[in-house]
């Protein structure tokens, strides 16, 4: 990570920007930079990432889906498995099954906006079967298990995730997951990824009662860690939900842009990453 590309800090007694240039050339290591800034006792500003230092860095929070692992690819595999199950069980073409799933998903998100229940695959499967005129009692559980068993067996941490979490743990920087969706399935994902031992807390939108970008879900996670917003970084893939939400909550936002999307305009500073390996 080229910290010099976005850091420019000065104090009356020392030009930290020059020190950071030296540090980046010498180590290229984000955490070396953070602890170097701590040495000079510089206070951070949650509103301007150019002023962020490790002086008060106590926690790093993460989104889960499409941040710590590739949800999009796993989701496609799971949908295909569910459609194939439906085709064999009900003699409904897989394509029709998928179209009904998309319609059900859209309806629930419109009817249950910004609450965890809109992601519930039992509810989506139930609505999908109703749209198709098929039995919608008990069968949703079969579709639910087909979807999630496929997804959970296919996921693995993104490159750099385990190393990054291990380093944070070793350096006694607390970690948390702040995620939309229901708690049960998010815990199952964390277990499947094998990263539970590196995490201190998790807050889901089911627990918070709101979804990102609502600041409450971020603050609930910070409260569990006993950390103030300006003492934490947040890393996520959704610009609207993760970056804007984290900024509104007072955290330092890092945008994980693995698909190389154009950078949105914003009236605040944030750091763009293309891989979590950049933090190692």
TrEMBL record:
It comes from Butyricicoccus porcorum. Keywords: Hydrolase, Magnesium, Metal-binding. One of its GO terms (biological process) is small molecule metabolic process. NCBIfam families: HAD-SF-IA-v1, HAD-SF-IA-v3. InterPro entries: HAD-like_hydrolase (IPR051400), HAD-like_sf (IPR036412), HAD-SF_hydro_IA (IPR006439), HAD_sf (IPR023214). This is Hydrolase. One of its GO terms (molecular function) is phosphatase activity. It holds the Pfam family Hydrolase. Its cofactor is Mg(2+).
